[in-house]
Structures are given as structure tokens and as C-alpha cells.
Design goal:
Length: about 290
């Protein structure tokens, strides 16, 4: 495996970061997770755009010139050939004497590595996955993809310890998102997901799925979702760059709908995969021309 650190491509054991790095001391940094299929990125531009937004929101100058992120990430993927991969990219404010307030001029730390995307479980279409619900104990700017993820870590751990794959979070009686995913609910004829705002991450998969379904005439809504609607949902789905579109068939040990992956999920996954393959091949054609 070859990773990227501050301008160099090198083995992970040679990649060293200062203990004074503000990412280590304060969680003062942001990240992205970008999927690729057979050596081609999926929605790279959208991920880079969100990365730049996160940097602006935490008041960090962008350390890469125009197209710098794209070339760095493409190079890293080339150096780590294989099947379906995700690239983890982290940018922190860099190393400085410990003080909560940050110096105005700092050299960012930029780190990236490649991981395999686990293939979907073979029995997914028959069984789906379990989730638990928990109170959302995170901060008021969950729209920033910050590396400070302690509440998410604790929520996911609790889910795993209870035999579930995800914790879906509730704030003031309303669904926000999962610890590491966005959440969709099928209720009657409508597909509903909570609206964008400071309470949730603007998921790239969420946006892509909404656009793909709407392009085929589906009734998709971005509306606040009270806990009662979540609990009486016909179907619940999770979306993320590494999970694509997962059907939740049990919530807090109770069956969702009929307790099996729903019919609507099956159709939505077809629409998603078709649109995904088209987007990947269009991006490839654009890169070559
Ligand atoms: N997490 N909400 C949260 C809190 C997330 O951490 C993620 C993704 C999402 C989905 O966003 P996207 O569709 O852009 O991946 C929503 C990544 C995969 C992670 O932390 O590993």
C-alpha cells in the first residue's frame, strides 16, 4: 500500500505526522471518503467541492491549487490498483504549539490512503441490515465533514455491540441521519429524507440518489421526519459512499415493514446503479477528451 502525505507518495510506515498536529490535539481538520469502481472515481468533482466547502467553513486556506486535489487522488489510485476502492482524504490545520486559537499562517497536513470497499453481503437482498436509534448528541454544524467524530464513533460502537450496522440519530424528536450515513424513509408512495441544514451532512450519495430517482419521475421529498414516521416506515434505507443504498429491515429489534428488504429499495438500487455506471463512464470520457 502507498499513501500520500504532504506532497510525497510513500509506504504507510514511513508517513510521519507531528504529535503537535492540530488534527491529533484538537480534531481540527476535515475529511472526505471518495469511492472508485474498477479504477475510476465516482462523483470526484462533488467530493472535491464538498472538501473545499468544509475548508472554507473551518476557515482554512485551500492548500491545493486548481485541479490539485483531482491529480493527487488520481495518482494515489493508480499507485494502488485493484477493484473497488475508497480513498480517505484528511486535511488538518497542521502542527503548532498547543493553543485552541490557531495561528494565521500554517502549513496544512494532507493525508490520503486507499481502502477496499467491502462487497455487499451476499444475503443482503434477503435479509437487509439492522439499525438502532439513539439521541443525536453531536454539535450544531454536522454539515461540516469534520474529523472530530467522537459522538459518531460511540453511536456506531453501540450499534455494533447490539448486532446492528448503524445507529440512526434523533434530535428533538426528529430524524437527522445515521452515525456515518444519510437516511431515507419510504412512507406510502413517497420517498422522504430529512432536508439539508446544519443538522446533517450533505451526503453526496443522498444527492445523487435523489437526482437519479427524480429523473425517473419518482416522488422524492426532502422534509422533516418525525420519530413516529420513522417508526411506522414501510422501508428505511441508509446511503453513503461506501454503503451505496442499504435496506434497514429491523430498527431497535422490531421489523421495518415486513422485516425484509422492500420492493421499493430493489427498484431504487437498480436506478442508482444504472445512473452510477453512466456517471462513471461519462466522467472517464470527459477525462480522456
Ligand atoms: N461517511 N452522514 C454522515 C455523518 C457520514 O459520515 C456520511 C459518510 C454520510 C454519507 O455521505 P456520503 O454519501 O457523501 O458518503 C452521511 C463516510 C463514508 C465515512 O465517514 O466513512
Amino acid at each position: 500500500m502507498i499513501v500520500y502525505l504532504n506532497g510525497a507518495f510513500l509506504p504507510p510506515e514511513e508517513a510521519c505526522i507531528s504529535p503537535l498536529d492540530r488534527g491529533f490535539l484538537f480534531g481540527d481538520g476535515i475529511y472526505e471518503v471518495i469511492p472508485s469502481y474498477q479504477g475510476r472515481f465516482f462523483l470526484l468533482d462533488e467530493h472535491v467541492e464538498r472538501l473545499r466547502r468544509s475548508l472554507r467553513e473551518i476557515r482554512m486556506p485551500d492548500p491545493q491549487p486548481e485541479q490539485g486535489w483531482e491529480s493527487l487522488l488520481e495518482r494515489l489510485l493508480e499507485l494502488n490498483p485493484g477493484g473497488d476502492r475508497s480513498v480517505y482524504l484528511q486535511v488538518t490545520r497542521g502542527a503548532a504549539p498547543r493553543d485552541h486559537a490557531f495561528p494565521t499562517r500554517m502549513a496544512a497536513t494532507v493525508f490520503a490512503m486507499v481502502s477496499s470497499i467491502a462487497p455487499p453481503l451476499a444475503d443482503l437482498p434477503d435479509r437487509g441490515v439492522a439499525a438502532i436509534s439513539l439521541p443525536d448528541q453531536r454539535w450544531g454544524r454536522c454539515d461540516i465533514k469534520s474529523v472530530a467524530l467522537l459522538p459518531n464513533v460511540l453511536a456506531r460502537q453501540q450499534a455494533v455491540e447490539q448486532g446492528a450496522v448503524e445507529a440512526v440519530l434523533l434530535r428533538d424528536g426528529m430524524l437527522t441521519e445515521g452515525a456515518a450515513s444519510n437516511v431515507f424513509v419510504v412512507h406510502g408512495d413517497a420517498v422522504v429524507t430529512p432536508p439539508l441544514g446544519p443538522e446533517i451532512l450533505p451526503g453526496i450519495t443522498r444527492r445523487f440518489l435523489l437526482d437519479a430517482l427524480r429523473a425517473e419521475g419518482w416522488d422524492c421529498r426532502e422534509e422533516p421526519l418525525p420519530e413516529s414516521v420513522l417508526r411506522s416506515a414501510d422501508e428505511i434505507w441508509l446511503t453513503s459512499s461506501t454503503k451505496e443504498l442499504l435496506p434497514v429491515t429491523a430498527l431497535d429489534r422490531r421489523p421495518v415493514g415486513e422485516g425484509r428488504p422492500g420492493r421499493v429499495w430493489g427498484h431504487a438500487l437498480d436506478v442508482f446503479r444504472r445512473a452510477r455506471d453512466l456517471a462513471i463512464s461519462n466522467a472517464g470520457t470527459r477525462a480522456k477528451s
